[in-house]
Amino acid sequence: MGVQGKRVPRAVREQQMLDAAVATFARRGYRAASMDEIAEAAGVSKPLVYLYLNSKDELFTACIRREADALKAAVRAAVEPDAPADRQLWSGLLGFFEHTAAHPDGWTVLYSQARTVGEPFAAEVAVMRAEIVAFVTGLIAAAARDADCEAADQSLADREVAALAHALVGAAESLAGWNAGTTGPGRPSGKESAATLMNFAWSGLDNLMTGHRWTPSR
Amino acid sequence: MGVQGKRVPRAVREQQMLDAAVATFARRGYRAASMDEIAEAAGVSKPLVYLYLNSKDELFTACIRREADALKAAVRAAVEPDAPADRQLWSGLLGFFEHTAAHPDGWTVLYSQARTVGEPFAAEVAVMRAEIVAFVTGLIAAAARDADCEAADQSLADREVAALAHALVGAAESLAGWNAGTTGPGRPSGKESAATLMNFAWSGLDNLMTGHRWTPSR
Amino acid sequence: MGVQGKRVPRAVREQQMLDAAVATFARRGYRAASMDEIAEAAGVSKPLVYLYLNSKDELFTACIRREADALKAAVRAAVEPDAPADRQLWSGLLGFFEHTAAHPDGWTVLYSQARTVGEPFAAEVAVMRAEIVAFVTGLIAAAARDADCEAADQSLADREVAALAHALVGAAESLAGWNAGTTGPGRPSGKESAATLMNFAWSGLDNLMTGHRWTPSR
Amino acid sequence: MGVQGKRVPRAVREQQMLDAAVATFARRGYRAASMDEIAEAAGVSKPLVYLYLNSKDELFTACIRREADALKAAVRAAVEPDAPADRQLWSGLLGFFEHTAAHPDGWTVLYSQARTVGEPFAAEVAVMRAEIVAFVTGLIAAAARDADCEAADQSLADREVAALAHALVGAAESLAGWNAGTTGPGRPSGKESAATLMNFAWSGLDNLMTGHRWTPSR
DNA sequence: GATGAATGAGGATTCATTCAT
DNA sequence: AATGAATGAATCCTCATTCAT
């Protein structure tokens, strides 16, 4: 069945299987993707998939882990460690959008599929998300310190910095999700998406620093 | 099997079935939800579900339509038609968050499940989303006019108002999505979520009006 | 549902149901025809069909009986009792072909469906067939006596007259079956079909009378 | 579950499945035969039947094709190619009756079931039948030429030779059909059935050659 | 390292049939 | 005389998973 040569070393075969699985899970969803389909897409027989990855659940988990690690690595590799905080945030966002654009199936599996399938998997993604939120929170806080060293009520700001980070990550996910569903010339570039969000983050930060808010009773 | 009274008129039974279906689809996802489970949750036998709703696909579609209509109606009912635009936006957001908080299963079905299952269903949700984005775009544009009547470069603003509306809706969806996954005292109230987003919208609007932007080369 | 007036007397309703059932069974076969379909075709609700005809089996049996009786009656009505035997056979065949042509659904139910469904029903048709074969056997025997009064070995002829009758009936059925499957100008008229079979019967009879036979060792 | 050995190669298992399917379809009809029943009769599990034959429709089609091919092959193998035409017809008929007698289930599936189920299947059988009719037409025409080389009105004869062939095939089918329904000592041998039909064919041929016919107005 | 053969379990869908009105 | 409401019992089909080689 496999048109390609046989006797491929295990590590390589496993990556081929994960590639096939990610693509299939992204296109069909966890339940609708069949092990048959994945095995065929990987160019191997079904028992081999089981030999290496044990079960559909473990296969899906392996996909999630691989894609989550790759995404985190891409973001981490994108930030310049010694740059000013706003520059770090900017390059991190850029890394995020460029990676998700380059690996749309991975992003779909993480964002759309894993979170809708249910418990063992959603937790996995939640952990990754928490790490990213923490990372962004740190950057925003640093940026705030850089911008205004004599901030008065730091304790209040902490809580709101976290809210801002959450909102920023949520917005980034939403943008990436809609990007993944868009093809052709209308699709925003990573730079555009990142710039949009930097503007959000910065005006949000301004609001925080100046205590300038919209209120219903205005 | 059904513990409740029998011989219920069709219209009532259909709503019971849709209630059960929305809850089940939200918890399990489209594929994993079985018609057996739904019928049992509705307190009727499976053939009756088929008699009234025809197929799993049509049942799911009926759920999507009902929840989408309910959401649109809730938002529309929340806005005060003659209030100033910012007030309208605020009350619309409030209506949105209160409805999604009150009907988390409906929101999950619309936002998480329908969009990940594939084509006949995703399109249905896309239409609803487009209507909401258009509505929000109108409100933001009106608010911008109210705030600054002599705005110079309106044509540029139009394009960016639309981007802002998209981002606002995306952020609202993301927030509602994470709210739906959160229970207990940590869960933000509808008012909090709406206020957060109004601040986003307002600072975004400020950016638009003042031409004040963050750029990487800064 | 029923577009026609209500409160129809039972005897009439029953015939409407049988009409609908015969048409449906002919088109779909016994198993594939659903009681729903039949009730709808009859313009009544399903419980009414059950009220009058009790079960699908009994309904099918009633169809078979009605169509078998109608066919036998048509053949009997067609023969002129006091005519010479060959003339009687001819008019009987004509009656047979004209009736089956006028009631193709009835013929299909009897010939194609009832015999392939299995036991309670096939027996019903077998009885009808036996009656017809007996009737034809009598006519052929009479015709033979008319044609040649001093026939020598009557006992041998009896066995062969029966074989001829069987073959004639089988051929008639086969012809009617293929006629029922044919529509348009290519379809043979009842007269043509009857003439074809009379020629078969007559040459078969000749063979019997003259002892003139084809044998493999010739 | 299967009492026979396991790990049978695919080609063999497929034939076992077809054997079981032909027997089951013949006894119960297409609709009433369940895949469970067929799988059990084949001594395998249902999924294996689906793995090899894909669906009930395809399984039935495969049965029809196999039985049709076997029947055509049996007839072709029976005729002696260089014998006189009447001898060829005789041996073909003999082959037909012996094959249908040896494979009554196959004949039932072809003749009774496939034709009553509906369109994709009836067409398959119609093609086979057309091939057989063409073959017989050729033999009868040849026999006619052998018997009377100076036949005057060949064009008329052509049309009637075809009619005769049709009638002969119809009669053979009818005979084989009733044979298949008969068991025990009363069942005619293949030789008897073939001889009966040769006599039909020969007297029909005589009628054609001599212009000797029965007419109602006689 | 790799696969052809095989299955238990479950899911969508349909159908004959009944009951309360 | 007639029907809307309701269901138990199949039936077709798919899938994750294993075993022997």
TrEMBL record, chains A, B, C, D:
This is Transcriptional regulator, TetR family. InterPro entries: DesT_TetR_C, Homeodomain-like_sf, HTH-type_TetR-like_transc_reg, HTH_TetR. GO terms for biological process: negative regulation of DNA-templated transcription. Keywords: DNA-binding, Transcription, Transcription regulation. Signal peptide: none annotated. Residues 11-71 form the HTH tetR-type domain. It comes from Actinacidiphila alni. GO terms for molecular function: DNA-binding transcription factor activity; transcription cis-regulatory region binding. Residues 34-53 bind DNA. Transmembrane segments: none annotated.
